[in-house]
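Hi R.,

Here's the chain you asked about this morning:
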Amino acid sequence: MGLGGWRGAGGTLRRRTQETWYLLVTLLLWCGFWNAHTQTDDGKSVYFWETGPWGRCMGSDCGPGGSQSRAVWCAHVDGWTTLHTNCDQGQRPSNQRNCFRVCDWHKDLYDWKLGAWNECVPVSARTFGAPRQFPCNGGEEGIQTREVGCILNSDGSPAEDAICEYFEPKPRLEQACLIPCPQDCVVSEYSPWTSCSKTCGTGLRNRVRSVLVPPLFGGGLCPNLTEFQSCKLGACTGPEGLFSLRVGPWSPCALPQTRTARQVKRRKGKGPGIRERGVKDPETRELIQKKRTRNRLNRQESPFWDIQVGFQTREVTCIHRNGSRIGRSLCTSRDLPITVQSCVLPKDCQVTDWTEWTPCSKTCVDPESPRGNRTRRRQVLQFSVGEGLECPPLEEAEPCDPQGGGAPPCATYTWRTTEWSDCRVDTLLSQQDRRRSNMTGLCGGGLQTREVYCVQANAELQKYLNDLREKEKAGQTQRQQKPSVPPLLSISFQITASRPVENRLCEGPIPNRSQLCQIPCPIDCEVSPWAAWGPCTFENCNDQTGKKGFKMRKRLITNKPTGGPANCPHLVEAVPCDEPSCYEWQLVSLDECVPDDEQQCGPGTQLAQVQCVNSNGEPVDRNLCSSSSAPEPASCEVPCSRDCVLSDWTSWSTCSQTCSSKTIEGKQMRTRSILAYNAGEVTQMVVAWITVMEGLTRVPKFPELLGGVLCPNSSALQEVRNCNEHACTVYHWQTGPWGPCTEDPASLALNISAGVGPSSDGQAPCSTGMQTRKVICVRVNVGQVPPKKCPDGPRPITMRPCQLPCKKDCIVTPFSDWTECPLTCDAAGNGVKKKQSRKRVIIQMPSNGGQECPEVLEEDKDCEVPKTCPGFRWKTHKWRKCQLVPWYLREGTPGAQETCGPGLQTRAVSCRQLDGTQADIGECLKFAKAMPPITQRCQLPCQDDCQLTNWSKFSSCTADCVGVRTRKRALIGRSKKKDKCKNTQMYPLSETQYCPCDKYNAQPVGRWSDCILPEGGRVESVMGMKVQGDIKECGQGYRYQAMACYDQDTRLVETSRCNSHGYIEEACIIPCPSDCKLSEWSNWSRCSKSCGSGVKVRSKWLREKPYNGGRPCPKLDHVNQVYEVVPCQSDCSQYIWVAEPWSVWKVSNVDLKENCGEGVQTRKVRCMLNTVDGPSESVEDYLCDPEEMPLGARESRLPCPEDCVLNDWGPWSRCSLPCTRSNNRNRTAYPLRSPSVGRECPETTDKEPCNLNLNCFNYFYNVTDWSTCQLSPNAVCGSGIKTRMLDCVRSDGKSVDMKFCEELNLERKWQMNISCVVECPVNCQLSEWSAWSDCTQTCGLEGKMGRQRSVVQASQGDGRPCPSQMEQWKPCPVRPCYRWQYSSWSECRVESVVCGHGTRYRNLSCFVSDGSGEGEVSAVDEELCSSLEVVVGDDKLIRLKEDCILPCPGECYLMEWSDWSPCVSICVKGAGVDFGSVQVRSRAVLAQEPENLLLCPDQVWESQACTGGECYEYKWFNNGVQNSTRPVTWCQRSDGLNVTGGCPAATPPVDSSSCEPPCLMPKSFCSEASVCMCTPGFTEVLSTTGQLDQCAPIPILEIPTAGDKKGDVKTSRAINPTLPSTTQPGRTGRTWYLQPYGPDGKLKMWVYGVAAGAFVLLIFIVSMIYLACKKPKRPQRQRQQNNRLKPLTLAYDGDTDM
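And here is the predicted structure, written out as tokens:
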């Protein structure tokens, strides 16, 4: 056990030791890991400081001294952020630094400076360290860099980039670029071989080519441009010319050393002794003469030319054909050319230093206006002489801004407008509007215009600053007098009109010159109908004196008019009457009839219920009627049971007349009817009937049956009374219009002390005035009567106060500045009188008695004619004496002893004004033409020379085109005796030429111009713009065609030669626009409803459609009508049913016992117009509501005697709402006759249940839709009113009277009227035509001048649209086009020798053309070009001669320059990359002698940049024809030109002609299978042996012709449509273009198909022929049936009558 325990303890110890060991190892590993984490491989920490970007520079002051901060944190190399303590604190970056605080005003001080882009470096070079070779395809991508830095503008010193980055991001430092591929030199094909350089012996033939594209970007150099080939036409029979005399070039001009030579000769002359006096050698004589000439001419020498005449020499040598120089003696003896000549010593132009810069032309400050310019000049000290360098530019300019802070602001200009003119409606009327004849009362939308002009906006400010500056200059402004506030703040401007300036100075949009306006339409007064005449009353109830009064009737204003009630007609009419009363009793009702003596029936009385009313019918206190007695109780009768019963009286009818006279009386009527007969009267009738029936001789008596009051006769059933008994003399007050508002003296003092508020029309009133009007008393249908005839109570007022508007004076602008005087000079240099003008503009028209406008708005005056027209010209002085080469140089030459031979002479040139006064030479250099030459070659004749006089003038011609004219000259001196001078062929003494033929022919050229109206309209002023008024835009005008004048040689000359002003005029018509014409509006239809709201309609119909741009028609319907529909309201009580009284009962069944029975009553019912006085006249029944029509007949029982008699039923009571069957409506009746004892009255009350929409109705308002916009009758457009109607609608949908809804107090929340606008038909308004432009060409046949107009106001609504013609043109007068033009260069001339340095010449001549570029150019007299500057094209340097080299025989030389090649674009086809365009010319080498090829010069080419070149591709092409003259493989440009060079450097295609035999046919090639095939679009035609014979176009359509058995193939491929059809050899007939045999010689599959189809078709045809020819068998059985059916068979034989 002990051992076991030991072992156990040891195991535990060992286990714990292992655990400790594991813990230690883990700790060590963790520490190692921590060390590995905190240390990098090189021992550095894994933590480092990270910084953020610097923040914005902050500070209180601008510039240095600001501070900026940034974030700093500790980060791990893996990117996560940790504690600051993990990083080394000693290396912590600063989080703050000083900086430059940028402010906004620094923007003008600092700016980015951009360096130039460096060379494009390939991307591969930057990526791999060195450029790598890649196949170039269009170009290689590259990058180019540049330097960008922030600088201080003042001195260019560098600054921190952050300053500039504050305002603008830093520009990019790199950009992509493309390095183009190397472009090899491209040359053209060779020219044909030249002829052999020798006519015998061995020579050379040459052919040359030219450079098309120069080598670029390191491309291959140009190959040889010349190819040589030896030639030998045959052996020479004689000696071959081996030697040639060659002239060398002239040496530079040098001064002769004459003084040294003279001294040497003088020293040599002392030896032999003194010369004989008077004997001088030629040199001495020449020197003396030169000195005298120099002394005499130096006075005329110009300081700008230092002309020194020198000499130059040249060498003449003898040259062998192999190019070697040999002795001159071997050359053929001939006159040697001169080897020395005079020349002008070349001197370069000398100029002074530049002057100081002139002040800037812009003297004011305005950043938006363009910068100014400043210039500096230099003067010429010495002009270029001879071949010296020309003068550099004598003036240069640069943009500038005004310097210093005191520059005033620039003048600014703005548009100003006048006040709007009065609103005019007439401009909107159409042509057919009848209101054009009478425009009074027009209102609504209109048009008003104003004038627009340009003014200087800050003229007052500039005037103030100029005055201030002048005071400072004059010393009048002292410091103590300066204002304490800045001057600009203390300026007070007076509101005045600004001076107009030219419109071109104003920029920006032009304000509108027209606008729509509104003239308020007057609202007409509308009044109600007249009310009924009132009672006779006193005029003044407070003063009831007198016995006369007035009956008056009134009407009310239903629509208040514009200007108040004063514009309404009279509202009160009066009629004189007697016995007036202010108050009277009015019967309200009558009480029930009470029988007298307390009886049950019989006569009685009924009391009247009355009230006291005034003259207006209003109840008043009963005491006021105490003066008049109240109505007495009325007598009545209660019928007894056996009495007659009558109905109540009806109401009195309307009075038949409104007044009474001797012949006219007003009547009223009322009626009643019999409801029951009395018993006695019925018995009498029965007795009478019995008497008749029984044939009795007398009437029997039944006294027991008699009794009861009898019914009255029919006349007693109606009553008539007089009414409106007053006379027909109606009076009323009539008012005149209010007079003008005049000053009221009583209120004048008040107005001075107290202000008056503004009036309603927007014009501030100045004072209160008074208006009066005339009021008179008028009798109707008579006229004015004395005022006492009319009542004073309703008399209108005659005076009222009014507001006086302020006076408005006319306001005009000051006159503008005078327009500039155009400086025009005539051909003689004299000034031409012109005029200058100025104007002013009315900006406010006078009104209300203000000061009127001045009559003169424009002034003009003559310009001052300048004494001298500006202009300069060169003046040439006389040529000086011809100066020869010094004698010692020409000593030994022929004629050296004489003073003769070629020389040089000079002359002086000066600058003059046009009037001849001296001017600075710089002016002529700037403004005059090219300076004339100051030197020229001259010839002093020798003794042997022939001397002649100058040519005389040509003799005069007797007539044009007839005869000849001559001029002559003569020999001088000894020349007359010399035989060689008498040779008239060499020295002609006369010249003859045909007389000039001045015949001219005029011809029209070009097209006719537009039709142009004569100038007569208003012309737009320079100072103001007006809108177009009623300017005539149509009618008769003229069109023009240019006339050209030609002379007899068809040369263009001035048109004045043909007595023409340059035009053909022809009348033309511009059709006037015609507006759409409609008829007048028809009358309004009747309202579609007689009760409630409906519509009424009126229409117009089309009379004439618009044309020529007239106003368009409104939208018409299918019958060309336009409608206007407006809502209308009909009063439901306007038409009423009126029923007459019931007729007498017509008893149909009489009860003899009871005296009663069944009966019928009838009455007339008419529809009548209801007025305030009651129904007036009958109208059609359909106007009344048929549901409301009363019954015209009724059946009832006639009450028997002693029966109860009731009156007619009263109206039904109204059902209470809502309508339910539980509610009832009632009607009542009361007994008129009580029944006898034992009898009872029927029910006096009737009721029925209320049923919805039968006898009970709900009511509600209904609003109609809005109407169209309604205008006043006098308006065309503008503000109007839309209306809608309110209906009271019953629950069954029927419109009823509004009272039903009003009684229910239903809510009315709708607006019935709203304002609206009808678009005005504004015609298009155009500006005036501008002035005619300058001619598009200064000369020629095709010059045009044009003018334009613009749309000032576009058309609106149905206005007349704008015309399409906004531009017009007409031809310019035809003028010949003169120009200076060179002739071709002459051949190179080397005097009398064969070769060497020579000269070639050309002439400068005046040519005329028609300017078209297509006509011929003809030479004319140089005088016609005298007014032109001597310029050829754009080249002002005129060169009429130049050095040239004439090659010697056998010499190898350079050809002349080729023409410039067409412009070629250096580009990448399809990539859109272009490296510019270039053109090139070259000089090839020509050789004449095989031995001299090594001496040939190098070929030369030169290139220049150009614009607009074509981008070409180059491809290899293969011919495949070995025996052809064309090479097998060649390079071709994409335009089809064969070239050398340019194609890719890859191996060109090799002819793979492995076909046997080779494919030689056109359009054929050898396929990969070694079989000859045709190109696409062509098919193979094989021979009999199966070989390709030809390639034929694939047929599209095959049409054989009658004359040719072969087919003529017509194809749409258009390869060569003119090729004739080809026949295969060995065959006849049609050519097979669809070949049945394949390439292997077997039949193709489609041939078998065609054969099978043909076989089937053949069988089908044979079968059909058999069936058609077979005779059918006739069946015997059906013969009878056929006969029976035959009559029923119809056969159509083609007759149309079938």
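One quick note: The mean pLDDT is 78.

Cheers,
M.
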